[in-house]
């Protein structure tokens, strides 16, 4: 970054829109992945799409790499700046632009906090169903850029399902209006879906139009104890067959052990190796209880409780939502994998054996969205193992785990994205041909390679 | 097509997989658009993806253009072969490959008839919701290639929503497995959605995995008489607010006049300028009747009937479904446009004036999916007007109509696609930048320009 570059930047950004002190560089230069050296050159804060457009034009001119930064809650390192990039933070673009009651859509700036969007929907008598542990600080732009999933995908789908329009600034320096609030449009290639999940590598999202839906009627939450991993899918299928499930979350006993250490209590009288949090509409409660009793008789469910109030439901949810936070101190190495549902029973059993064999001395915390075929596997760093040694070992096991995923036709990232962390493993999920098509597409939208370069894949095929 | 080319083709296709007689060329060389000279060189019938792959490799080698051909029910000319192209018919690829009960998906070959897929779902206790008048002959591959809409979009979304996986052969001659049955996959750019709606210009679809859903409970069908165009949206909103609508179809009196000429009877005692077919779950019938009575009192609805049996429901549906057929003899010039819902009232009124002013002597048959913001406008050719004169006049009005659409931020094709028919008007809906990005993307997947060339846009920007 030369003085000239900086001066040109100051031509269109005010002083308060540029930060370069050490603390800010460190703070804004990373997401939740703590494995990389943080080294941005500047942090800038656009206030509107025009600022973003000017930034891209400036960056193109000087071949300066830009890294988009939302709530920095990403788990794949997609928002890490380690190569003197300029970090573009969207936190000043946090306004609700329009509520359209006829279309039941909210149009918001990219930097709006997810929880805030949920609140805006509720205040208008509606429901925005994308929900996950980090929603209190994650931003909508980031949710769209990674196609965020969460706990309600089983009922409502991922972020992708709720996007009706996007305003993006491409790496070429053009503003595109994608989707344009239309329910139907059959005029050529769908760029809306191409940008969703592209992790800021094609362009930056400046505005998002989100559909909302009617509020679910009162929900009931079950917490179930399960003794065998192999029974999980059967339990899921039995409930799923007759009841619309709003959530079906698996947690291991070890996961809940860590959560209990933070002061939460397990509302069950016995301990089980596995637990399931199941959320359903209250109207289906009786039906669910009948299935529950049958599964208890068969020994597939060993214990269970049902929320009797909204508070109790929240207490059960807190067990699930606090897992990540409760293990954060143990520097977990995270994997976020998925296979198709029908292959999940066999996959679970093989992964269980693999992890027991390869990590005999590490604690492994599992939890996951069973109904989506999606598992989160967190390897905790033992205190006496050095960080680099630990990571090396996790990366060794990655190869084995990802080979297994490849064999099962699954994915190395179900909802966290690829970013930097999973980049070396992309070929386990995507074919060489697909990765090459991605490279070529990036060149079209970002001819100078300035938009979040080095994320998802490298610009050039390695030889 | 030289003898050598043909001989090479016969190396991997049997005699019965190649047709070149005049009748077949005419039959397979077109879709439902009757405005182009039909002139294919050959019709070929691959039996599997390997045949398609060999065809693409052969076409690349000799720079021969290929046109994909499904049920040939398209309304935009995307399956027209008028330039000596080789037509690739998928009708021999019509097998159900897999029913996966755990995932509730059907995997089928691209040439399966839409209605057959609906039947396969029903036989397994499920429901495939994509439904439209041409479903008895349209093929799934074509539905995906145009992201077909239909009468249930309001409740279930377009074809796009139901695709869990695609096998495609790109114009580069590579087989890609997209989506791969995964509910969640966050590893790079989404090519599944890029291929959906790409009208065979990037590659040909050989296999489709479709999600199905639970069968709707008993449905009731209302037929409502409406006196003013401006009341339509209000009526829609009032019902929509309290009742999940499975269909909400508008038809003009003229549309139903033509249908009645085919022998169908209108089950209402009075005539109205506009009619609405509304489909809801029986459970909501009482609620709907209350809203209906209120709207009658307000004079917004002038007449109405409710189906008392499945047969009666079918009879009402037949009124809607037979519109296109009943006017087919009048060589209708079709437009399939949409705007965002909130702009529909103002748009309807302006389009109504425009059509009355510009087509004083032509009969204009309107119908549409009000809940999707989508209108079908059919201009009928008067017997005494010559065809080319008629088309010229329709194209003159297109400019005015599409300018209006552009002003309202709408689309020139909601569900039919662009093909050849709407190609000259694409710029009314998509920006020059977007069209250029489309051109560049086509070059990546189809470097030799052999996959349905000249459809959607021309390969080179015209000067």
Give a written overview of the molecule.
Two copies of one chain form a homodimer. Chain A is an alpha+beta fold and 463 residues long. Chain A is built from 15 helices and 18 strands. Chain A has helices at 3-10, 22-28, 49-62, 114-123, 140-145, 153-156, 191-195, 232-242, 253-261, 285-297, 310-321, 323-327, 344-358, 387-407, 432-445; strands spanning 18-19, 42-44, 66-69, 86-89, 96-100, 105-109, 126-127, 163-170, 175-178, 203-211, 213-214, 219-226, 245-252, 274-281, 301-306, 333-338, 363-369, 374-380. In chain A, the strands form four sheets. Chain A has a seven-stranded antiparallel sheet with strand order 15-12-14-13-17-18-16, with helices on both faces. In chain A, strand 5 and strand 6 form a beta hairpin. In chain A, helix 8 runs antiparallel to helix 10 (285-297). The radius of gyration of chain A is 23 Å and the shape is globular. The model of chain A has no long low-confidence stretch (mean pLDDT 95). At the A-B interface, helix 7 and helix 15 of A face helix 7 and helix 15 of B.
């Amino acid at each position: 970054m030369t003085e000239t570059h900086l001066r040109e930047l100051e031509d269109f950004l005010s002083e308060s829109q540029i930060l370069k002190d050490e603390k800010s560089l460190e703070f804004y230069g990373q997401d939740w992945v703590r494995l990389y050296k943080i080294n941005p050159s500047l942090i800038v804060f656009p206030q509107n799409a025009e600022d973003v457009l000017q930034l891209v034009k400036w960056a193109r001119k000087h071949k300066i790499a830009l890294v988009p930064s939302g709530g920095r809650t990403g788990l794949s390192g997609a928002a890490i700046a380690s190569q003197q990039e300029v970090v573009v933070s969207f936190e000043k673009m946090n306004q609700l632009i329009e509520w359209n009651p006829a279309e039941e859509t909210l149009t918001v700036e990219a930097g709006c906090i997810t929880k805030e969007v949920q609140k805006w929907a509720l205040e208008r008598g509606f429901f925005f169903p994308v929900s996950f542990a980090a929603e209190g600080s994650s931003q909508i732009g980031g949710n769209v850029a990674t196609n965020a999933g969460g706990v309600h995908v089983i009922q409502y789908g991922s972020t992708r399902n709720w996007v009706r329009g996007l305003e993006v600034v491409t790496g070429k320096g053009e503003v595109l209006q994608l989707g344009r609030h239309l329910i139907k449009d059959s005029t050529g290639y769908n760029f809306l879906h191409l940008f969703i999940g592209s992790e800021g590598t094609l362009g930056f999202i400046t505005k998002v139009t989100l559909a909302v839906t009617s509020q679910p009627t009162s929900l009931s939450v079950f917490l179930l104890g399960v003794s065998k991993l192999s029974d999980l899918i059967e339990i899921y299928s039995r409930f799923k067959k007759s009841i619309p499930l709003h959530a079906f979350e698996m947690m291991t006993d070890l996961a809940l052990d860590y959560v209990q250490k933070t002061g939460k209590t397990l509302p069950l009288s016995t301990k089980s190796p596995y637990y399931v949090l199941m959320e359903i509409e209250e109207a289906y409660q009786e039906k669910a209880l009948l299935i529950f009793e049958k599964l208890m008789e068969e020994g597939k469910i060993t214990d269970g409780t049902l929320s009797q109030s909204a508070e109790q439901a929240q207490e059960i949810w807190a067990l699930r939502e606090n897992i990540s936070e409760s293990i954060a101190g143990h520097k977990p190495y995270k994997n976020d994998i998925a296979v198709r549902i029908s292959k999940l029973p066999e996959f679970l059993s093989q992964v269980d054996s693999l992890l027991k064999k390869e990590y005999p001395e590490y604690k492994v915390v599992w939890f996951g969205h069973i109904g989506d075929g999606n598992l989160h596997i967190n390897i905790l760093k033992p205190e006496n193992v050095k960080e680099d040694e630990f990571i090396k070992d996790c990366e060794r096991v990655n190869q084995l785990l990802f080979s297994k995923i490849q064999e099962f036709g699954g994915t190395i990232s179900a909802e966290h994205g690829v970013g930097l962390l999973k980049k070396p493993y992309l070929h386990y999920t995507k074919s060489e041909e697909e990765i090459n098509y991605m490279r070529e597409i990036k060149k079209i939208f970002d001819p100078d390679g300035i938009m979040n370069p080095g994320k998802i894949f490298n610009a050039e095929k390695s030889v």
